[in-house]
Amino acid sequence: MFSDLHKMPPPYRIKVVEPIPFLSAEERRRALAEAGYNPFNLRADQITIDLLSDSGTGATSAAQEAAAALGDESYAGARSWFRFHDEVGDLTGYRHILPVHQGRAGERILFTSLLKPGQICVSNTHFDTTHANVELAGAHALDLPCPEAADLDSTEPFKGNIDLDALERLLAGPEGHRVGLVLMTITNNGLGAQPVSMANLAATRELCRRHRVPFFLDAARFAENAWLVSQREPAYRDWTPRQIATRAFELADGCVVSLKKDGLSAIGGFIGLRDDDLRAMCEANLIATEGFSTYGGLAGHDLERLAQGLREVVDPAYLQSRAESTAGLARMINEAGVDTVQPPGVHALYLNAGRLLPHLSPHEFPGHSLVCQLYLDGGIRCAELGSLYLGTMDDQHRLVTPAPFELVRLAIPRRVYTDAHLEYVASVLAHIAKEPGRVRGHRIVSSPKLLRHFKVRLEPTPARAVRR
Ligand code: F0G
């Protein structure tokens, strides 16, 4: 590794840049009001630092753009397809690779081919689209996170693990025959970007073998999980991130992968499979709904960027620098008095808004209120993971069951922001933490029934005296 004495700098320098806007406080206030206090409705040119998602938002390399110029756009059997296919095949070891335009297309194709109505899909935590696609296939999505995940402050190294005891009880119990799939999300995006250990993956595979249930990975952040394994799981200390990733894929019967994250590209994904019959079913669905099996909704130039991106993403220097940068941001934020889910992961930090804003009850959406304040004070866009997103509401959009935690996710795009940008984010949070009582709550004005958080409109509740 680089050196224990230094922080690892990014192993690249910046060749092409894009200006970012700085609006006045009044312009931000107006923009947020016009957006119905929902950051999904903001325009990108109203945002200074965009931490809404790490998906499709990374910077590409010169080598990726050079490869893209060689993109072969033949309808079938393009050169670019074979380059992508060989790269993914080498990394994952799967016999069958089906390209898709993004992760959720792969989820839809896999789940409608593999799951039968009434079956259960078990996960450490389903991502929201994954959950939706399981339910759209007529099955039931069940999360069994490990008990350590419930303590946001504990520094247990693998809080992304599945609860093996609960999984075994389910598989051996009366409902065991209904389990149609076990899907492990690496890293666990729904639960604080926490990694899954190789030991947990291996034990899950054994349980699935014994009970003849397919075991798949949702491997959107396979490289970042591998990095955290190399740092936190002693048996893998001498393995490269690429070796660890390959071993993780080997442990599973297949995978579904969004390549908008660790593919270091704006678009892309794939399904990896060993089973011939399942491949035939998925392929028919792919051709009917995504595109022919050698492009799956992607252009040749996308396949080229992805093939190159998959090489770059497992570079230990890149992963070390990215992980240290995220950990550095966590440190600055914690020192400013804002707690984050511990220990810090790689792709995102999760702020404990419930603890920062005790004057707001879950009914006033403290997570969402912090999201709005970050925009008002600093032009920073991020997303709530709390009662607005996960709570249940009555017909008048009043909160009935709050979420277990009121969190805010700061997702960090790959190779886009420097530590100076992250210092700015920390300083805006420090400003809010000095006087948290001025953060106003919010109530819902209108809301769609499905996928609420994308289209909901809100308004601030009246300011009132602060209880401390
Ligand atoms: N699985 C996980 C774990 C994800 O985080 C995502 C997307 C998907 C599947 C779906 O992939 O977007 O390519 O269709 N996560 C993004 C996020 C949107 O912001 O966390 P996709």
Summarize the structure.
Helices cover 40% and strands 14% of the residues. With 468 residues, the chain is an alpha/beta fold.
Output the keywords.
single chain, 468 residues, alpha/beta, Aspartate Aminotransferase, domain 1, Aspartate Aminotransferase, domain 2, 2 domains, seven-stranded mixed sheet, three-stranded antiparallel sheet, binds ligand F0G
Q: Could you characterize the architecture of this molecule?
A:
The structure is a single chain. By secondary structure, this protein is an alpha/beta fold. It has two domains: 2-54 and 316-460, Alpha-Beta Complex (Aspartate Aminotransferase, domain 1); 62-312, Type I PLP-dependent aspartate aminotransferase-like (Major domain) (Aspartate Aminotransferase, domain 2, 3-Layer(aba) Sandwich). 40% of the residues lie in helices and 14% in strands. It has helices at residues 25-34, 62-69, 79-92, 103-114, 128-136, 164-172, 198-210, 222-232, 241-251, 276-289, 300-312, 316-335, 353-356, 366-378, 387-390, 419-434, 452-455; strands spanning 49-50, 96-100, 120-123, 140-143, 179-185, 215-218, 254-258, 269-273, 348-352, 380-381, 383-385, 392-393, 399-401, 407-411, 442-446, 457-460. Strands 2-8-7-6-5-3-4 form a seven-stranded mixed beta sheet, sandwiched between helices. The protein has a three-stranded antiparallel beta sheet with strand order 9-14-11. It has a two-stranded parallel ribbon with strand order 1-10. Helix 5 links the parallel strand 3 (120-123) and strand 4. Helix 4 packs parallel to helix 5. The longest helix has 20 residues, at 316-335. The termini are far apart. The site of ligand F0G has 16 residues, from helix 4 and helix 5. Residues 53, 55, 102-104, 127, 129-130, 185, 189, 218, 220, 258, 260, 269, 411 line the site of ligand F0G.
